[in-house]
Amino acid sequence: MGYHTPWANVQDGKLEATIRYFRDIGNKYVIIPSLPAECTGSIEAWKRTAEQFNALSKRLKDEGMILGYHNHDTEFRVIDGQIPFTVFFDNTDPAVVVQIDNGNALSGGADVMALLRKYPGRARSVHLKPWSKTGGYAPIIGKDDIDWKEFLYWCRDKGGTEHYIVEYEDEKAHPQIEGVDLCIKALKEMEKGWL
Fold first, then answer.
1. How would DSSP label each residue in 108-121?
2. Is the pTM of this model over 0.90?
3. Helix (H, G, I), strand (E, B) or coil at 174
4. Handedness of CA 130, 97, 82, 5 (dihedral sign)
C-alpha cells in the first residue's frame, strides 16, 4: 500500500500522528507528492530537502515504512545549470524511493529511461501516465510518446518496482476513471503481444 502524503504531515508536530495512522491502516510507502517553495527554490534548497528526506527516511524505516518522492515536470527545469530532480536524488539515501511519473517527466523534457537507469532499484512505485509532444496528457497509453515495453520491462527487471499506478489527467479527452480504464485495457493488450 502507498499513500501520497503532504509534506506538512511528516513535519514535527504531525509526524508521530501520521506514523500511527499509517501503522493502523497498514501503509508501507510514504510518498511525498509535492514540496513547498522553500524546499525547491534553489539548488541549495533541494540539497537541504534531501538531507531532511534522509533523516525522515531513517525515522520511517524504524517503523517499517519507506519514504519516497513523486515528480512533476518542474523538477526538470534547470536551476543554476543543474536539474533539481538529479540533485535531489543524488543527495538522498538509496532507500528513498524514486516514484517516477513518466508522463510528468517527459512533459518536463526528461529522458525517463536515463533517469531510471541512474537509480536502479529505487523505482519501487511508479506512475504510468500517457504523454505526447503533440497531445500532452490526452492520449491513451500506447498512443503516446512513451516506449512502454522498455519502461515496464526495466521496472520489472531492474527497478525493484512493486506498484504500478495508472494515472490519467486530461479530463477534456476522457473523464479520469474512463481514461484510466482505457489505459489499463491498452496495457493488457500490449502485454499479450510481448509474451
1. TT--HHHHHHHSTT
2. yes
3. coil
4. positive
Q: What is the mean pLDDT of the chain?
A: 95
- Cell, residue 82: 543543474
Check residue 2 and give its pLDDT. 84
For residues 149-158, give the mean pLDDT. 93
34, 4 contact by CB (below 8 A): no
CA distance 174 to 136: 13
Mean pLDDT of all residues in 114-141: 96
pLDDT score at 195: 57
pLDDT given at position 44: 98
Sole residue written with cell 489527467:
169
Q: How far apart are CA 69 and CA 29, in angstroms?
A: 10
Beta carbons of 35 and 27 less than 8 angstroms apart: no
Residue 164 C-beta-side C-alpha neighbours within 13 Å: 16
What is the SS3 assignment for 92? coil
Contact of 151 with 102, CB cutoff 8 Å: yes
Q: How many residues belong to the chain?
A: 195
Structural domains in the chain, sorted by start: 2-194 (3.20.20.150)
**Would you give the DSSP letter of residue 156?**
I
